[in-house]
Amino acid sequence: MLTGPHRPNSIAVLTSGGDAAGMNAAVRAVVRTGLSAGLDVYLVFEGFQGLVDGGEAIRLATSADVGGILQQGGTVLGTARCKRFRTREGRLAAARNLAANDIDALVVIGGDGSLTGASIFQREWRDLLDELVQAGEVRRSWADAHRHLPLVGMVGSIDNDMFGTDMTIGADTALHRITEAIDAIRSTAASHQRSFVIEVMGRNCGYLALMSALASGANWVLIPESPPDTDDWEDSMCQALEAGRGIGRRQNLVIVAEGAQDRHGNPITAEHVRRVIEEALGEDTRVTNLGHVQRGGSPSAFDRYLSTILGYASVEHLLNAPGDESQLIGIREHQIINSSLEACVAKTHSMGDVIAAHDYDTAMEMRGGSFKESFDIFLTNVRAKPHPPEPGQQRLKLGVLHAGGPAPGMNTAVRVAARIGLDRGHEVVAVGGGFKGLEKGRIHDLHWMSVSGWVSKGGAEIGTSRFVPHGAHIGTIAEQIADHGIDGLIMVGGWAGYEAAHALHASRDAHPELGLPIVCVPASINNNVPGSEISIGADTALNNIVNDVDKIKQSAVASGRVFVVEVMGHDSGYLALMSGLATGAERVYLPEQGVSLEDLRTDIAGLREGFAKGKRLGLVIRSEHVDPVYTTSFIRSLFEREGDHQFDVRQSILGHIQQGGDPSPFDRIQATRLTARGVEFLIEQALSEAPQSAMIGLDRGRIRFTDLATFPELVEPDVHRPLEQTWMDLLPIAEVMAQPGD
Ligand code: ADP
What gap in Å lies between CA 323 and CA 656, rounded to an integer? Predict the structure, then answer.
């Protein structure tokens, strides 16, 4: 009897092709989700080679087998290039081994090569089984029950070069490695007034080159999708670099993607760029090829999160909708999506053809709106000086200020606000020290070079404060705005900034000067403001937490300990939940849920049971405002007292290191995108008859504006957090992942 696709009882997971940071987190998520659904989960070692070889290369997994791997780079399953899998004979052996282990479904994590192989294998599956049945190697009944091979793929590739997902596993970590390296090169280049040409990976995809250029404030970028417009591009590049020197820039940084080429398809190598610069500018120019450094190291917080949700969704897909066509599980606009694996592979391959045919408009279009937008913003930011104002153009005076706690990425945002405002022919002024500074008239001009180097600088150079004006303060601020002739304000900050901006906006009837447009750009590590699913600074804070918790875990495992780690977040549990997911915490205490004595009892019982069975470390993350009585030190004492001497307990309050450090690439990119659009909007409004004020933000990855007047309606009445918190949907995933074994 033939059956259609059925709910699998057993699945196998493998990693293949080039390794990518986050593959381990994906394997862990597949195993734990599979086990919690009652499946047998098999680990296949060494990629398709393990599938072809069978035997010891295919092993039944336990939850503990994937413990402690979340923070490791590369893949613990190993990966190999397997020539035999490219042949039918090799794939026949693979099918034989799946049947021999009674495996019903397959999860493949790899790049486009691996997913192409997977797609071919799935298509051939029925034929392969028929052949094995005829050869007497597989029972007819097994073959009949397995006419389809449910198969899902996840893209593990640092290049971010695959269709079917906005981000591939490993790309964010690679961006971290590249921007760290460029930041380091920048300081040496500036010391010696040198030029550096940096080659980054990406054969058909300029994602890493473009985003790292944007995130590091590089001065020129060469990517495969958008070659230089003209044949004398070398002259234009050198003129731009020379102009930068003319206005006092101490370093020149040029990023070249591995696959960069000119309009005619001739490769542009880093060495060629070096020679051209050295000859034209007559200055010492060096090439750095970042090579395999880009692949290495511990996965970033985002890659751990992405891999975890994709791994979870892959198994859910196999359980609920196995279908007879293989699927690629990815994210689009921050939502999990699945698409035909075959179609994604075909579209990815066609990108190579489009570039080979020199059809660059199509190539840029295929990459999507935010890629093109990022390229345009890059082009404005790298100019050595602004475009001159148009004749007769109205010159506005735009003010930029911060409010709320410092958030990494604030300086990046001010740099962009200044550069875009000046480039459009307007004046830009900085208000020092938030709304308090505005009241006191602490206002100074920003010039093109006053913000040089700010893209990567942590902290908030112009200063911030938590002051929210009320009563007479509002009138004084209105006078200052009038005295300084400010036509629009861009507030880059957190909760206090939103409250302050709203207070001014709401007072415009009493003070007509306050009728100016105000744009709020979300910048808060707490990620607790309305109008945006993510705020600038939260990703850096998350990476800071993750780095520290990794170290804490190492010390805990050495001594059989439970750690209670307290993270920031004010009334929002975002940092706690996301860091819990990214570090493998077994429990997170969130202000949205609170914590009861009953919860604490259950958690102690769970810890005692785990340690009795050989568990070596425990990790609990507590958000700072979860409960006024059950403080971090209370929980620590309680766990220690009730731990029955099975473990000792330590606490760690991470404190202000969470707000510190240079912004992560993601925060730099979002600060750049959001502020650039925010300033455009501000200018448009300032020139209009009835200016609007807005909160700018990301909604499913897209930029959106929300009327500032609606601020009070979008937040909870008594606590500092928005009513809508989409990330709370991740709670069930965190619970599945928190199985013993880490
Ligand atoms: P990546 O997955 O990172 O793109 P590769 O292109 O090296 O890496 O592919 C990894 C493995 O996937 C190969 O060694 C091979 O086993 C398998 N593979 C790649 N392309 C095919 C194909 N066309 N048919 C069958 N297997 C393939």
Answer: 49
Q: Which atom of ligand 1 is nearest to the CA of 110?
A: 2
Residue 691 lies in a domain: yes
**Domain final residue, candidates 633, 661, 689:** 661
Question: Which residues line ligand 1 at a C-beta cut-off of 6 Å?
Answer: 16-18, 48, 81-82, 85-86, 110-114, 116-117, 120, 157
Question: What is the DSSP code (8-state) at residue 387?
Answer: P
Residues 518 and 556 reside in one and the same domain: no
Which of the residue ranges 158-162, 348-352, 370-374, 435-439 has the most confident prediction, judged by mean pLDDT? 435-439
C-alpha closest to that of 578 among 730, 422, 394, 741: 730
Sign of CA dihedral 375, 381, 386, 391: positive
Ligand 1 centroid, distance to 132 Cα (angstroms): 23
Dmax (CA) of the chain: 91
**CATH number of the domain where residue 626 is located:** 3.40.50.460
Domain boundary among 332, 350, 382: 332
Give the domain extent around 459.
397-535+666-718
List 53, 112, 159, 161, catalytic entry: 159
pLDDT in tens, 385-421: 788 888 888 999 999 999 999 999 999 999 999 999 9
Q: Find the angle CA(275)-CA(207)-CA(699) to the nearest 5 degrees.
A: 145
- The answer to whether residue 562 sits within a structural domain is yes
Answer yes or no: do 453 and 542 share one domain.
no
Contact 291, 202 (CB under 8 A): no
Of 49, 85, 112, 122, the residue with max ligand 1 atoms within 8 A of its CB, to mutate for a pocket test, comes to: 85
Domain CATH for 148:
3.40.50.450
pLDDT digits (tens, 9 = 90+) for 314-363: 999 999 976 778 999 999 988 899 999 999 999 999 998 999 899 999 99
Residues 278 and 406 in one domain: no
> In this structure, are 314 and 324 located in the same domain?
yes
Residue 318 token pair: 């196999």
The alpha carbon of 350 and the centre of ligand 1 are apart by a number of angstroms equal to 17
**Residue 147 sits in the same domain as residue 14:** yes
Residues 485 and 569 reside in one and the same domain: no
C-alpha to C-alpha distance for 638 and 632, rounded to whole angstroms: 10
pLDDT(2) > 90:
no
244-248, 257-261, 352-356, 544-548: which range is least confident on average? Answer: 244-248
**Pocket of ligand 1, candidates 92, 114, 160: which has the most ligand atoms within 8 Å of its Cβ, to mutate?**
114
Describe the strand order of the beta sheet including 427-431 as a list of residue ranges: 443-446, 427-431, 397-403, 488-493, 518-522, 694-699, 702-707
Over the stretch 547-575, which tens digit does the pLDDT of each residue have?
999 999 888 777 789 999 999 999 999 99
* Total of domains in the chain: 4
Residue 391 lies inside a defined structural domain of this protein? no
For residues 416 and 477, membership in a common domain is answered with yes
Active site residue 539: no
Q: 155 and 238 share a domain?
A: no
Give the 3-state secondary structure of residue 405.
coil
Q: Which of 637, 628, 631, 638 is nearest to 653 (CA)?
A: 631
Tokens at residue 338, please?
């699945």
Classify residue 357: in a domain, yes or no: no
Cα–Cα distances in angstroms (integers) from residue 225 to residues 259, 355, 398, in the given order: 9, 7, 35
Kindly give the distance from the C-alpha atom of residue 198 to the centroid of ligand 1, in angstroms, as a whole number.
Answer: 28
Alpha-carbon distances of 719 from 361, 392, 406, 715, rounded to whole Å: 48, 49, 20, 8
> Would the pTM count as exceeding 0.90?
yes
Which atom of ligand 1 is nearest to 86's Cα?
Answer: 25
